[in-house]
Amino acid sequence: MSFRKDFYWGGATCANQLEGAWQEGGKGIACPDLCTGGNVSVHKRITPELEKETFYPSHDAVDHYHRYKEDIALFAEMGFKMYRFSIAWTRIFPNGDDEKPNEEGLKFYENIIDECLKYNIEPLVTISHYEVPFNLTKKWNSWVDRRTIDCYLNYCEAIFKRYKGKVKYWLTFNEINSATTKMGAFLNQGILNEIKTMDFHDQVDIPNHRFQGLHHMFVASALATKMAHEISSDYQIGCMQIFIPYYSLTCNPEDELATLQESQITNWFCGDVQCRGKYPSYVWRYFKKNNIEININDEDLEILENGTADFYTFSYYMSSCQTADPTIESGKGNLLGGVPNPNLKASDWGWQIDPIGLRIALNEIYDRYQLPIYVVENGLGAYDEISEDGKIHDEYRIDYLRKHIEQMEEATEDGVDLRGYTTWGCIDIVSASTGELAKRYGFIFVERYDDGTGDFSRHRKDSFYWYKKVIETNGVELESLLK
């Protein structure tokens, strides 16, 4: 078995988790700039006003803003064919609703793109990756208000025109379906209704706001796709989802029904709108059951139908189990809830590891949409340490990635049109879910720690050399170099 000859191997990052320099180059305040740091016992908080002597990890992150040439050179050393990164909206339009784009921000990303092209690395650009200008949140609660669509389209027009001829592949929103859960309201949409305890996960949830915001994001994505195709016939615009295969905890029909209904809303709803161009039938009963009422007009429906995605991308970290039994505690470990699967082991952060689930996801997605697919996030968050010999021995990460790549190979044999694989956090970055630096994903260790110390120096892990060999052999040689 082997991957296609032009398969895109690479890695993925996000601006607010990577760049730092949060007040340099004319950048405005983004929602992640108001999220504090955390650790395994103290998750991040949202502070609508900045607090003195509080650690905000995005403010410095891992200082990619000043070190992008060094970092991209390391990606090239591994042999990357594609690098997925995001543009910080607030570097281009600091307040979100500015009349003109910020030239210094446009130039910064042009430099990053040019650096990638120097090494023949294809840029895959995420336009909005969990980063909404906080000014829009203060003004009208961001995506709840329809005016945010025009702000987003002004932003898209600026970057589509500026990077024409240099960037081919774009993603409109990162993990857009996270907005179907309470977690996505602030993180993804910049929606801030009220916070009970200032804990990141303890917001007052108003489902009407989330789903109205999601509808506005659907319309913005479709209009941006149409705009991109008008600006350049070479542009390919994709959607991006979290995908979590759901298994029934038992073969009880009630568990099966609960599994189906959870998967419909979490996994399929957003993909159906963005790839098929219309709201699926099952969502209306969900809205009725949950007393969700949103404003949709006929023009919106026409826009959705005419602005479907050219390709499908998704993040994959875990599967999840569902049950209708209310006596079984849910939400243990896995990102979007569910109950633990007794057949799977878990990471240091309780995320259950399921390589076969990736093959299942790829088959289900391709069967449903028949579009080219890219796995644009997959990785293991783990504690890494520099050993006495000065190296970082992360055999556990190699084992995790190897098993997932093997299942991607199986999926291609199944007939899935899989075009690329960009691992998450190809260099250590700030964790989005906890605000930690201790939760490391990368092939490159960054000396930056949760107490704010560290010199930001970069060190190649064992997985760096392993992934280099994987890319060189197009996925044929997957065994650890240590064996």
Automatic annotation (TrEMBL):
Name listed for the protein in its UniProt record: 6-phospho-beta-glucosidase
Transmembrane portions of the chain: none
Keyword NAD belongs to the record: no
Record flagged with keyword Chaperone: no
Native source organism of the sequence: Breznakia pachnodae
Any GO MF annotation of the entry: 6-phospho-beta-glucosidase activity
Protein family (similarity comment): Belongs to the glycosyl hydrolase 1 family.
Record key words, sorted: Glycosidase, Hydrolase
Upper classification of the organism: Bacteria, Bacillati, Bacillota, Erysipelotrichia, Erysipelotrichales
